[in-house]
Amino acid sequence: MKTNSSPVWGGRFKKPLAQKTVKFNESISFDKKLAQFDILGSQAHAEMLAKQGIISEFESHAIINGLKKISKKINSNKIEFSEEAEDIHMNIELFLIKEIGDTAKKLHTGRSRNDQVALDLRLYVKHEIQNIQNLLNNLNISIEHIAYFHKETILPGYTHLQKAQPITLEKYLKAYQSMFLRDTTRLNDCLVRMDYSPLGAGALAGTSLPIDREFTAKKLGFNGVIENSIDAVSDRDFIIEFISAASIIITHLSRFSEDMIIWATEEFNFIKLDDAYATGSSLMPNKKNPDIPELIRGKTGRIFGNLMGILTVMKALPLGYNKDLQEDKEGLFDTVETIKNCLDIFNDFLNSITFQTDNMKISATNSYIWSTHLLEQLVKQGIAFRIAHEIIGNLVIYCLDNNKYFSQLTKEECDKISPHIFSSIKLIH
Ligand code: ARG
């Protein structure tokens, strides 16, 4: 006979679990993060069961109210989760039994933890996508604001990390803005595809009870139901897709960070770091280090790792639920927290930066980055592109050999290379 401490599935078992099995098997230490979504799902399920006449209205109300109380207790940390109850789903079911008695034992009717966990995860990812989109939006507002003041700020644009052509700081910043905008729409795409409810899929084959899947899907804000019950409980492609999108976001953040790290060097000196967003050295009194962008660059490793993790968990998994799927959570939670932290602090970091526009200008002036402009001036005068390319190439060699920039050349020096150069130089400066 089942004792009080047996798991909810204990009826078929003669012996209790070994303590090591309990420890190894549990997910409550991390899936407690899903508590509020689990409760929302259960409340919708209980309401549906009553609507379908599977349980009474009275029982449904008792369950829904009991869950409300549990939700409040969890929010105020008044509940202690137990490893023995394995995961968030069984913890809450057991709390409910304690709260309202035997009626709670009807909650799991027509449902399995397999569709329940898939539901919780979808609700969680949907919720967090919105938070991440808000953070992306905040960052883009900051970029817009900063860029507004730098429509005329010239700085060298780089290819191969070699000075290439002049650009404006506005254009530079808006390149990242475009990437973050695409990141937002990428998350939207992910959201649209995952916005279907797995609830009612049961363990894998649905149920013979007359449940109404459309009702719970609508109640929980989904666009519809996942038609195939095996698909509903088996796949985690929405997690793979979400972490892929997060990997692209952190890649963009990492590149932006890398640029700021380079710009903060004494050699570049394009930005000054705010004391509140930089750190010192325990040994070298002169140091001011860009730890924030460095850490963001480093955290790409975690998120890429999480993507590899979930891809590997899913690869070659037999169709249907397998306990391997419990390993989908920690990497997902870590990805969400990491990407939110990085977006948030990078926004503050960006707003704290002083752009050294004079240094950018000097760097752009003391260089040959106007060469392509000059070449195009010659093309406008009817000179073939390849010939113009060679003329300006020769001019650059002349300048390098004589330690001069274009603006310092005399007419005689220019005319020695081509009669078209001198007037063109005037046009580009
Ligand atoms: N804790 C489990 C997980 O995270 C919940 C589903 C358990 N299902 C099962 N058939 N054992 O995946």
TrEMBL record:
Catalytic activity: 2-(N(omega)-L-arginino)succinate = fumarate + L-arginine
Entry keyword set: Amino-acid biosynthesis, Arginine biosynthesis, Cytoplasm, Lyase
Chief localisation class: cytoplasm
Domain spans labelled Argininosuccinate lyase C-terminal: 371-422
Fumarate lyase N-terminal domain span: 11-305
InterPro entries the UniProt entry points to: Arg_succ_lyase_C (IPR029419), Argininosuccinate_lyase (IPR009049), Fumarase/histidase_N (IPR024083), Fumarate_lyase_CS (IPR020557), Fumarate_lyase_fam (IPR000362), Fumarate_lyase_N (IPR022761), L-Aspartase-like (IPR008948)
Enzyme nomenclature, EC number: 4.3.2.1
An example molecular function term from Gene Ontology annotations: argininosuccinate lyase activity
GO cellular component, one term: cytosol
Pfam families recorded: ASL_C2 (PF14698), Lyase_1 (PF00206)
CDD domains to which the protein is assigned, alphabetical: Argininosuccinate_lyase
Keyword Cell membrane: no
Protein family: Belongs to the lyase 1 family. Argininosuccinate lyase subfamily.
Protein name in UniProt: Argininosuccinate lyase
Gene: argH
